[in-house]
Structure formats: structure tokens, C-alpha cells
Amino acid sequence: MRAILEVEDLSKQYRLGARQQSYATLRDSLAAAARAPWRFFSRDNSRAERVWALRGISFDVQPGATIGIIGRNGAGKSTLLKILSRITEPTTGRIRLYGRVGSLLEVGTGFHPELTGRENVFLNGAIIGMRRQEINRKFDEIVAFSEIERFIDTPVKHYSSGMYTRLAFAVAAHLEPEILVIDEVLSVGDLAFQKKCFGKMSDVAGQGRTVLFVSHNMEAVRKICNQALLLDQGKIVSAGKTENVIASYIEEEASGQSVYTIPPPVDEENAPGYAYKLQVEDGEGRPAAAVPVGKPWQVRVYFKITRRVEHFLIALGLWTNLNAALRASWSTPQTLEPGDYQAVFREETLLLATGRFPIGVGLSSFERSFHYVENAGILEIADLADGIDLVRISGVGVILNPMKIELQRSE
Amino acid sequence: MFKPAAAVATAQAGFNGRDASPQGSPSALPDEPLVVIQPSRSWVPLNIGDLWASRELLYFLIWRDLKVRYKQSVLGVGWVIMQPLLMTVVFTIFLGKLARVPSNNIPYPLLALTGLLPWTFLSSAITGSSNSLVGNAQLITKVYFPRMLIPLAAVGARLVDFVISFIILGGMMIYYGVSVSWKIAMLPVMVLLITALALSIGMVTSALNVKYRDVGVVIPVLIQLWLFASPIVYPLELVPERWQKLYALNPLAGIIMGFRASLLGGNFYWTPLAISAVVTVCLLVYAAYAFRRMEKTFADIV
Question: Any idea what DSSP says for residue B31?
């Protein structure tokens, strides 16, 4: 079948610091031109440092495909979307589009606080590329979707941020181009509404519309996309079935760090000791950048005692990536003589959901902490474990549920 | 780590639809791409078709500008009329009464108003459009549409103000008992010319303002100077004969005198008007191409 979208050897180069330079005053430019008149007119400013945001990307998309574009920050995802949406031009290469593109790099673009909800629906609709007739036809549906019927004639400056987002997303969700390009716009709004948007997007995908979707939310990518594309440093490193690409993304992410240096205590002179190194390990005690769900794992903390310390204990804490304290473990109090020590915190079955969990370390004597570091390291949890039901390891909260569930018919 | 070679192979294999089935996907794809995205050369075609296709958006942008402006100010539409009216009063007192500037048998307030109305339009249109791109940075970095719509909408909104402000002129003409002649037929031509002039200057300054923010500061000053370099609050006859040829090179001069002639029934000064028309058209064409040339960097630097 013919592709609806062909990307051929696409590259985009940015001038580093172009942003700061843009505010250069006319006077500076004229002064520079006086010194070197030929350079004022030539577009090549050879002194500026350049970076490639995208480098030689090629891929085809068949009609009806839903493609997740994933990768780290700065991998080039947003640049790709911006070029696809014709906001910025590529440096080299070309894209052929055989369908109308609608892009949502943001919801509520062009919303004006002084205008009413109704007025903003029309304005925003026109901005994202809907015809007036089309908006007229869908208006009731949009308002119903946004669930703010009562306030539709109120200026949006009086809206709560939730209402604002709902209305903005409601308009966006009714855009019906042949190719839909979406940046991480789902990460807004309350949970229930997010679900609703997810549903709407899956509908869109089901209707045979082509969708390109950038997200950091692997769960969303899994649900919406049947294919994925992994970018790294402006290049495609993996493409194909969503599951496989996400797996390689996680694997790549995991090829990161396992040993962390711990910064010294604030009150270094009065502390009777300090921790200086932390290592995340697998069940066999080998350094591991990522730990699979359901497997044994351990953290080894290296510390030094410089003065005899009584009632000493060492603690390890875990936080969620939203910075909520998750749990902590303490060693039993004891007296330590000066010397080098290691503490190993071990767990036989890791029952946390996939993600990154900051690790904190604390040393104390008589319940008084003398060295305490949040974010001393990161526990990266990968979902590569065998023998654990994949359905149950993500999107179900932070702590995995080992509960056995039985259904009984009551009399 | 990855095996790049294998990865590239899969990457180029392409994506297939979820249900590569006939019912799911639009079966009839056009043979030619609707759009080809590629780096453009330095001078790009104007793409009038693209502009025409987005006329609805232009309408909405103008509508937003008017609605917001009228909503936010207490006097609303009244302000559009007040501004030239107040200026007319000031100039009538200082130039008409105190300095006794000759006005060719036309009551001075009428002379000033017929000049100040188009001038107010020109000045507010240029100021408004030169800040329009910077003010709409949010739109430019998030959505695609022909960028020219933004200065166009800024000028368009002021054009609506301009049309509304004719109400006071009508009132004044009735008060002074001025009858309208066939010459009024030339009025639309004058409106068209001054709009084109405002648009061409607005396009260039808005684009320059993206890169050089001091343009936005300089423009109002230059516009003030332009007021006195054009026959707005005084008649052409006040300019020494030998300077008049040079003076006519100012495209605004011919247009303002044309306004006056078509409204108050004086003589048309055809040579300055022809010069104005030629200069304005050249400016417009140049401005449009220059704008298209500069627009591709807007999203990256605004």
C-alpha cells in the first residue's frame, strides 16, 4: 500500500544560542555590518556553534498507522513534529504529505482570556485549521465533550485551569485531519478527563486516521500506538512494533548509571562519619543500572566512620518520581569504631512499578542525623522480568499488588 | 545498546496500518503529495492561493483583535472616533487659530480631519502590525498558517476602525454644508492605496521586529515625523514651490491630497497621486517578498 507520509533524509540544524542572538539590537548588527559588510547580507554566520537536532531521518507511514515517537529529552522528537507541522523548515531532506495534516503541539492555542468560551471555540478551531462550517456543525458536540455547558458564555479568564483545559482539549479532539500530529498534550487536566481524552484519541486511531504521537508516557504510547519510533540524538535507533521499541528504549535508558557519588555532609567538621558512594546491584551483587520487576535487588552504601559513634544507624529511603516519600528502612542501632564500612540493603522481590525512584541515604546517632542526602542515587525499574504478568506491572500505581483475589458467589 | 545497522533497516521498512484493511483507511490517496516540506530557497513565491485558503482565519484574527480591544476599553468603539477628533481639535486651536495656517477656503477643521483620519489609520495600522508577530509568538511557534495573515489581520482590524471613524467626518461635512461630488468615487481607490501602504510598511517592520526588537520602539517616533512631512495638518501650498517635486516622492502626500479632493471636491493633484500609486505598489510587492523570505526563521527566533 502507498504511504500517506514519506520522510526522506530529513535533517535540521540549529544555531546554538540563536535565541539569545535574536535579541541582538539593530545597532549591534549595523556596527558588525560596518566592520564586515559582506557578512551582514550573507546568511552564514560561521562563528555560531551549530547542533543537529535531527540527522538523516527516513521513514514511511501507511494510512491508518498510529505511531508513537519516543526518546529522551533532546532526542529530536519535538523538532520532528515541528517540521511535520510546517512550523519550522528542515535544513535538508524532504517530507511528502498525501493528506491534510492537523497538529496539536499545544491545546488552546490562541485562546484569549477576554473572550467567552463560545468565542474561543470558534477562534481556536479556526487557528488549528477547522472551517467555520465544521465548527458550527460540531459546536454542540464540543461543548458537551468539555462538560462546561453552563459557562460557555463566560469569558475564559473566569475559568478554573481545569475548565480551561477541558474546553481547549474538546476543540482539539474534534479536529479531523487525515494525519494527526500530537505532542505531549495529554499530560494536562485531571485524571478522569485524561481518560476521556485517551478514549477519544483511541477512537481517532480506530477510524483509520494516521496518528503521530510524541509522549514520555509509555503507557499512553502502548494504548494508542501500534508502532513506535525511537529517536536518539536526532537519529532513528529503533522502529517497529510498539512493544519492541519501548523495550529497547527502556534497555537503552537502563544502560546508564549504577554507581553514584554521595556529596559530603553539610556540617562536615562535626559529623562523626559520612557516606560517599552508593551502588545499585542485582541479586548476585553485580552493579545494575536497572532492576527488573519481581527480582531480588540490593543497594550497597559505602561509608566512613571517623570518630567512635554510639547508637549508630543507617537508613535508606525511596521516593516516587513525584517526590513523595515512598518507604524507608533502618539498620538496628549499634556502636561503630572508626573505619571503612559498607551497608547492604537487600530485597528478595522487587514489587514496585516501572519507573525511576530516587534513593536517599541517612546516617544518624541517637536519632540525630549527621549525614542525610536525598537523591543520592536512582533506582531504575525495568519491566523486563519474565514470569510476571505484564499487565499488572504498570499503570497500576507505584506499589505492585501481590494480593491474591478470589471471586465467590455469595448465597 | 543498539545495533544501529539493524535499527536503520527496520526504520526504513516503513510502518503498516493497524488494520491495513480497506474499510479502515482512506483508500484514495492523491497521486501527487498535497504538501512537500523541504528547505526553501532564499526567494520564495508568494503563494496567494494559500492566503486565500486561510481567509476564514484572517477573518477570525481581525474579529479577535476588534472584540478584545473594544471589550477592554471603557469607551470601546467611541475611542476610535475620539482619537482623530481630539487631534483635530488640538491642531485647529494651534495651527488653525493661533498660527493661522492657510487652508484654501476649506474650513481648517475639515482640512485637518480629512488628513488626520487616514493618518490615524496609517499610524495605528503600522504600529499595530509591527508588534503583531512578536505579540503572537505563541501562535507562530505552535501552529502553521501563512504568517502574512498576522500583519494582515492587524491592518485589517484598523481598517474597520477607519471605516467607522468616517461617521464624524460625515457629521462635520454636514455641519459645514459641504456637498459631495462625483469625486467621491475616487475614495475607495484612496482607501485601497493607503491600506496597501500601511500593509507594506507593516509587513517589513513586523518581520524586522522579530529579530531586532528596537524596531518596535523606533517606529512610533518615525511615524510622528511623517505626520509633519506630509500635507496632513497643512495644505500642499505651504510647501515652497521648488521643494514640491521632492515632496511628492513621499507616497503619503499624494494619497492624503487625494482623500481631500475626493471628499471635499477640490482638485486632484494627478502627478503626486500617480507617484504615490507607483511607489506604493512597488513597496507592496517588495514587502511581500521580503516578508516571505524572512518568515521561515520566525518560529526559531521569536
Answer: S
